[in-house]
């Protein structure tokens, strides 16, 4: 046998049996093409990324919570300590609230007559359907909550979402619901959730509307940028590693990755980039969009440690396919970690990073 082939695994799967588990299906039959990349992502996440000394950040784009992936995947990962911090679109967090409020979304068809749906006051997200009244009642809930005195100040988006999650969790308890909202799960497990574009969602629009009525609530984006960098800086400073798993691309992808250029380029602190990288995307790299940018390209920006390229995987598929598989794989392999409760440590980590910046400036 050629020496090159002797180092490779042979493609020789067993026939799929009735009793095969998800993890065994991945390991034994996902052998090539994007199935092969999904197997690599499952193993990278389970065997390296969720070790005790690795900080795991996740970015979330695409309408995932309306499709139920918050309930089926994200909450189990959060409850088992497998996600330490999150950057999400505001829209995912807005639609997440529907479930904690006991609202119903339905499976439909992408081929509906949208003019008829509009007449019937039904909203469509591709093949997901729900009453327009759900938007109105969710808006009312948000405005009522955000009018409380505790929100009348400037705060990071993590603090906004934590405080909103407190009310979301309380509503779940009142309605007899459990594990319906990622905002509730983040509040319970002290997981900070940031949004890179706070004005671009129903939550942001309701904040804007309240400002017209005298609300003092505003989002401190500088605090967000510095806090997220401090999370990454702390784990790396103490000999650990940083991992990022990106569901889709867009602004949340850049926001979670830019922690490293912020540390290295802007704050002038010694760092080498994130150590592990998984992206689930359907975007091409040749169009120049960030959603398709590869780990190799991220190296040039300092976002990814160049020595870590073997530990980077891009899976070209739909997140609604890949995330349930990755979640089932990790949980089947019995992975669980102690919660870092980073929300409670934000001030401490930010102050520590600030001291290091000041100490370096004195030298």
Q: Notable features of this structure?
A:
49% helix; 6-stranded parallel beta sheet; Deoxyhypusine Synthase; globular; 363 residues; 12% strand; 3-stranded antiparallel beta sheet
Secondary-structure topology with pairs:
Blueprint: H1 3-6, H2 22-29, H3 33-49, E1 54-60, H4 69-79, E2 85-88, H5 90-100, E3 106-107, H6 114-119, E4 122-125, E5 128-131, H7 132-146, E6 154-155, H8 157-175, H9 182-189, E7 193-194, H10 202-211, E8 218-219, H11 221-237, E9 241-247, H12 250-257, H13 259-266, E10 276-281, H14 295-300, E11 312-316, H15 319-332, H16 346-362
Parallel strand pairs: 1-2, 1-9, 2-7, 6-8, 9-10, 10-11
Antiparallel strand pairs: 3-5, 4-5
Folded structure, characterized:
The protein has 363 residues and is of the alpha/beta class. The chain has a domain at 40-102 and 157-200 and 218-356: 3-Layer(aba) Sandwich (Deoxyhypusine Synthase), CATH 3.40.910. 49% of the residues lie in helices and 12% in strands. The chain is built from 16 helices and eleven strands. The protein has helices at 3-6, 22-29, 33-49, 69-79, 90-100, 114-119, 132-146, 157-175, 182-189, 202-211, 221-237, 250-257, 259-266, 295-300, 319-332, 346-362, and strands at residues 54-60, 85-88, 106-107, 122-125, 128-131, 154-155, 193-194, 218-219, 241-247, 276-281, 312-316. The strands form three sheets. The chain has a six-stranded parallel beta sheet with strand order 7-2-1-9-10-11, sandwiched between helices. A three-stranded antiparallel beta sheet has the order 3-5-4. A two-stranded parallel sheet has the order 6-8. Strand 10, helix 14 and strand 11 (312-316) form a beta-alpha-beta unit. Helix 3 (33-49) packs across helix 15 (319-332). The longest helix has 19 residues, at 157-175. It is globular and about 75 Å long. 43% of the residues are buried. The model has no long low-confidence stretch (mean pLDDT 93).
